[in-house]
Amino acid sequence: xxxxxxxxxxxxxxxxxxxxxxxxxxxxxxxxxxxxxxxxxxxxxxxxxxxxxxxxxxxxxxxxxxxxxxxxxxxxxxxxxxxxxxxxxxxxxxxxxxxxxxxxxxxxxxxxxx
Length: 114
Description:
The chain has about 110 residues and is mainly beta. It has strands at about 5, 10, 20-25, 30-35, 45-50, 55, 65-70, 75-80, 90-95, 100-105, 110. Strand 4 and strand 5 (about 45-50) form a beta hairpin.
């Protein structure tokens, strides 16, 4: 059973930075990454990273966010810089497992505000 636990969210001013961490346990598969859900909006995929380090980002965060992964420790990170109001939301770590199933953590809140 895959379990995921996020940490690192908080309140930050526009232009600031935050680093999210996710500790995973269980049979983690090829892809890990992050989703987010802004108030009143659908959950969207933010960034993914494969076991070999290939990454992908939604256009709105490209150049500002960096996803990284520590396979030995089963952790995935999201370094967020130059944060904007529209980055506010709940951020969810996700991972697929060895059988193709998808799993999400409970989420951590990121608030960008003056």
